Amino acid sequence: MIIFRVILLYFIFIAPVKANTIYNLIKIPNLEIYEINTKNKLRYLYAVKPFKLGVNIKKNIRCFDSNKETLEKKYKTINKNLNKYSSGFLKKIGLKYIVLCEDLSIAKINTAGIPNNKMRTLILDIRFNEAYFERAIHHEVFHIIKDNYKDLFDETEWKNLNKKKFKYSECSTCNNKWNLDTYSKTEGFLTEYSKSTASEDMAEVFSHLMFYQDKIYDDDPIIKKKKIFIKTNILMIDNTFRF
Amino acid sequence: MIKKIKISKSEKILLVFIILLGIFTLVSLLIIKNKCLFVKNYNPNDIQFDNRENIAILNANCGNVIIELYPNISPNAVKRFKTLIRSGAYNDAAFYKVIENKLIQAGDLEFGKRENLDYGKVGSGKSGLGTIKSEIDSNFKYERGSVGLARTFQMDTEDSQFFIIFQDEPLFEGEYTPVGKVLYGIEVLEKVKFMPKFHIVPRPDFINSLKMLNK
User: Does B59 share its domain with B144?
Assistant: First the structure.
């Protein structure tokens, strides 16, 4: 019993104090402020050392620090794209912190970004493929939106927009449909990755809407319906939103 | 036969020197042990305030901390804070979380009072009045001495716990509900017991009293 008490007190008292404000706020270690005085009140943080995250001891999310030049260059691009969202909209969707790091992976699979709506954080891989980088920013923002407005972005309703025989995969990494090139002939889907899950499909439509504005594929009736679905529901969140 | 040796003059001087050195060491130790020795204790009655109804006086071991509350910035939070102060709820509450040069936290009224301090639960206690909504939309600057209400990871979970910061914290802006700022006596709080690397301060210091200037 005494040993048990000693062990318990050890964990209560000696658990290392993380005096780091950023860690206390979003539970990601090794970050420092990159820029916090922004137009839409987003706070940009960057990794000064590699970090690992995860709910269990395995910590399967990893990301690495980047050099100053890459950070400067990519920050401008990210900031330009995220400035499309007003502070009011960002508050409604619960996005406040953008973490900049490179070679981001989850379970050893590289990814453009990892949203965490509980921590109001979006981790972005600033070394992600240049060809899709800007679009991927909006794609990841959509996941934050959807996580906070699950009722609005109903997946069953979305699935009904597709051809009856079509079925999504069980998860976004359960197949090899990872290509992000926009199809020249869409047939209901903008990219191969759109076919992975309903959620990724929605995110792809949203990211195309944000990146190409309204210039995409109205000649495809399914895409047209999907665009209306996304637009209508985004305007339900904030009727001042502009694509 | 043992021959008695007479003490020489130089030995006498040495003896006096050793005794004086001993006295000096003892006095020095007493002075060093008194951590409040160089801390100014402010008397609120000697200070002129424009808005006495929003002045709170926190008394800790080394003296008074004079806090101005900002009802215009966070009306609900200040209302809650004043209610708890007026009921005497904060008296004997532990400064259970103290991070050197960073912040000090107190106000767990369930598990953080002198008579029922529970090291396993302190920090998770409630006031019994329920939680209040976060008030984070003002452009309040979290500078040294700012007082804010603590919360869980979720917004709108503020209750009775509060913190005071020892350095500017721009990241706190828009995160935590501000309730006021220390006008005088932050040095008193800097003398509160802390333990480097300890998550919770063992055998912590306590708030002696927290009162409103206008009762």
Answer: yes
Domain membership of residue B104 (yes or no) is yes
Note the ipTM here: 0.79
Residue B1, domain member (yes or no): no
> Quick one: B153 and B193 in the same domain?
yes
Chain B residue with Cα closest to A25: B153
Residues pairing with B94 in the sheet: B206
Q: Clarify whether residues B127 and B187 are in a common domain.
A: yes
User: Does A180 have pLDDT greater than 90?
Assistant: no
pLDDT tens per residue, range A62-95:
999 999 999 999 999 999 999 999 999 999 999 9
Give the nearest partner residue to B171 out of A14, A21, A118, using CB atoms: A21
Query: Is residue B50 located within the same domain as residue B75?
Result: yes
Average per-residue pLDDT for chain A: 89
Same domain, B18 and B55: no
Each residue's pLDDT tens digit, B57-91: 999 999 999 999 999 999 999 999 999 999 999 99
Nearest CA in chain B to A12: B120
Please check whether residues B93 and B199 belong to one and the same domain. yes
Residues in chain A closer than 8 A to B171 (CB atoms): 21-22, 25, 33, 36, 43
Cα gap B215→B205, rounded to integer Å: 25
Rounded to whole angstroms, how far apart are CA atoms B99 and B101?
6
Helix (H, G, I), strand (E, B) or coil at B158: strand
Helices vs. strands in chain B: H and E counts, helices first: 3, 8
How many pairs of residues across A and B have Cβ atoms under 8 Å apart? 42
Contacts for A207 with CB less than 8 Å, ≥ 6 apart = A135, A136, A137, A138, A139, A142
Q: Looking at the structure, tell me whether residues B93 and B176 fall in a common domain.
A: yes
Chain A residues touching B198 at Cβ < 8 A:
13-14, 17
> pLDDT tens digits, residue range A112-128?
999 999 999 999 999 99
Taking the Cβ of residue A16 and every Cβ of chain B, the question of whether any pair is shorter than 8 Å is answered with yes
pTM of the entire predicted model: 0.83
Domain interval for residue B19: 8-37
Q: Is A239 helix (H, G, I), strand (E, B) or coil?
A: coil
Q: Which residues in chain B come in under a pLDDT of 50?
A: none
- Residue B2 is assigned to a structural domain of this protein: no
Indicate the SS3 state at residue A3.
helix
Beta bridge pairs of residue B132: B158
When divided into structural domains, chain B yields a total of 2
Instruction: Flag whether B75 is in a domain.
Output: yes
A6 and B CB contact within 8 Å: no
Which residues are registered as beta bridge partners of B165?
B103
